[in-house]
């Protein structure tokens, strides 16, 4: 099971939401838990290409718009690399083949969300992680995301989007 208060879960749940909900969800987060479940169920049905009730890594990568070669390409342990900025100065960049690159993010999503460890994400597993994100955003705990809570959650998703966008 998940540990709802652990930091990694709270950080990664929005990444999974972003991964599974795509741009539409980022722009229009469901207002209630029930709304979230329903959007996820619809999205899940579309992403589960072989209709086996689970999202494998290839289906998840496809849902994210990632190239299939992502799943097989060489991986590095280093999260960051030094490279040269356009102005000639040295800078620290995200290593696209490292743990903060897209393949690494996919690994983190599976590590956190695949609760039974069968290598596939069931709808229940996806919804469980989404609930962690919802509850983190629902600051007054009334089960509804009001405008301020939605705006805060979208800023969080936007940060993750920037990270993912730079990690490919
Ligand atoms: Ca599947
Ligand atoms: Ca599973």
Description:
The chain contains six helices and four strands. By secondary structure, the protein is mainly α. The protein has helices at 7-27, 33-47, 57-64, 102-113, 123-137, 147-165, and strands at 54-55, 80-84, 90-94, 121-122. The protein is globular and about 50 Å long. It has one domain (7-165). Helix 1 crosses helix 6 and helix 2 (33-47) runs antiparallel to helix 5. A two-stranded antiparallel sheet has the order 1-4. Mean pLDDT is 80; it is low at 1-12 and 22-27. Bound molecules: calcium ion (2 copies). One calcium ion (CA) binds at residues 114, 116, 118, 120-122, 125.
Any key phrases for this structure?
two-stranded antiparallel sheet, 4 strands, globular, mainly alpha, 168 residues, binds calcium ion, 8% strand
- What is the string of helix and strand elements? HHEHEEHEHH
- Give the CA-based shape: globular
Biggest sheet: strands side by side, in what order? 1-4
| Class from secondary-structure proportions | mainly alpha
Give the bound compounds.
Answer: calcium ion
The percentage helix is 40-55%
Beta content: 5-15%
User: Got a strand count?
Assistant: 4
The number of helices is 6
Low-confidence stretches: 1-12, 22-27
Radius of gyration in whole Å, from Cα? Answer: 16 Å
Report the major sheet.
2 strands, antiparallel
Count of the domains: 1
- Distance from first to last alpha carbon: 30 Å
Instruction: Round the mean pLDDT to the nearest integer and report it.
Output: 80
């Amino acid at each position: 099971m998940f540990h709802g208060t652990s930091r990694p879960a709270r950080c990664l749940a929005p990444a999974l939401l972003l991964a599974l909900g795509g741009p539409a969800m980022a722009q229009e987060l469901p207002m209630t838990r029930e709304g979230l479940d329903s959007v996820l169920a619809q999205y899940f049905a579309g992403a589960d290409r072989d209709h086996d009730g689970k999202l494998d890594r290839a289906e998840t990568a496809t849902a994210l718009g990632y190239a299939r070669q992502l799943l097989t390409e060489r991986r590095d342990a280093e999260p960051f690399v030094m490279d040269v900025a356009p102005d000639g100065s040295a800078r620290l960049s995200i290593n696209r083949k490292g743990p903060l690159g897209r393949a690494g993010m996919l690994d983190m999503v599976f590590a956190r969300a695949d609760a039974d460890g069968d290598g596939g994400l069931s709808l229940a597993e996806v919804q469980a992680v989404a609930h962690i994100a919802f509850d983190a955003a629902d600051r007054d705990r009334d089960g509804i995301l009001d405008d301020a809570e939605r705006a805060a959650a979208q800023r969080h998703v936007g940060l993750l989007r920037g990270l993912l966008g730079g990690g490919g």
